[in-house]
Write a structure and sequence with these properties.
This protein has 255 residues and is of the alpha/beta class. The chain has 8 helices and 11 strands. The protein folds into 2 domains: 123 residues, Tetrapyrrole methylase, N-terminal domain (Cobalt-precorrin-4 Transmethylase, domain 1), CATH 3.40.1010; 128 residues, Tetrapyrrole methylase, C-terminal domain (Methyltransferase, Cobalt-precorrin-4 Transmethylase, Domain 2, 2-Layer Sandwich), CATH 3.30.950. The strands form 2 sheets. A 6-stranded mixed beta sheet has the order 1-6-2-5-3-4, sandwiched between helices. A 5-stranded mixed beta sheet has the order 7-8-11-9-10, sandwiched between helices. The C terminus is likely disordered.
């Protein structure tokens, strides 16, 4: 997605998806944009190894992490506009994809309203890449003909329609749900999802410190607590999680 104006005084903002963590999953287009950047506005969850491609840029940390003090979104949007109006090439670097729980839509709207040129450079979202590290296909024609990405944390505390999600039969990939894993499991069970539905929680996916638990929906919260998994992490729920057990067994047998 591009929005470009003809004003020579303006710089440009690249909203870049850095992918789930592993820097080798960064796209070539993202690398080229980072190499051209004068300044990088960096999210908390971006793997710092990605910054090797922006070695000459000024770095501004504007991270957000659940439970911690975060940079206000309105401040980030004003900063993007101000830097671009100074004629700078700005890389707004986000984990995963800017338009999947990355507030990219809010930032492009602010830039468009200010008349600032921008381009969105998609990234590989964690919701697909992280399950794949365990051999979990989020869709499978015999088990799950769809996948639903859902956030486990909202600004105003509203809950997803867990009953509708249960009845959809899709694989559920839950972002930002680790602190509420018990409540989410309880809500899905109350909505009629079978207790033995395969489930996984994967922390620090695609990175050297990746850890995971593969279990059932009923046991998920307890397994997360026992393994002391922390964020960033994803929860994956659905029959396709069964593929993870097969792959982990095969890997251990071969070792």
């Amino acid at each position: 997605m591009k929005r470009v104006t003809n004003s020579p005084a303006l710089g440009i903002v690249y909203l870049i998806g850095a992918g789930p963590g592993d820097p080798e999953l960064l796209t070539l287009k993202a690398v080229r944009a980072l190499q051209s950047a004068d300044v990088v506005l960096l999210d908390e969850l971006v793997d710092r190894r990605v910054l090797q491609f922006a070695s000459h840029a000024r770095l501004i940390k504007v991270g957000k992490r659940g439970g911690c003090r975060s940079t206000p979104q309105a401040f980030i949007e004003r900063l993007l506009v101000r830097l671009a109006r100074q004629g700078q090439v700005v890389a707004r670097l986000k984990g995963g994809d800017p338009f999947v729980f990355g507030r990219g839509g809010e930032e492009t709207l602010a830039l468009a309203r200010a008349g600032v040129p921008f381009e969105v450079i998609p990234g590989i979202t964690a919701g697909i890449a992280v399950p794949a590290t365990l051999g979990i296909p989020v869709t499978h024609r015999e088990m799950a003909r769809g996948v639903t990405f859902v956030t486990g944390h909202t600004r105003n505390g509203d809950e997803p329609n867990w009953k509708a999600l249960t009845e959809s039969g899709t694989t559920l990939v839950i972002y930002m749900g680790m602190q509420r894993a018990g409540a989410i499991s309880h809500a899905l069970l109350a909505a009629g999802m079978p207790a033995d539905t395969p489930a996984a929680a994967i922390a620090h996916g695609t990175r050297p410190g990746q850890r995971e638990v593969v279990t059932s929906l009923a046991a998920l919260a307890g397994e997360i607590a026992q393994a002391d998994l922390d964020s960033p992490a994803l929860i994956v729920i659905g029959k396709v999680v069964g593929f993870a057990g097969e792959q982990l067994h095969a890997c251990r047998s071969a070792a």
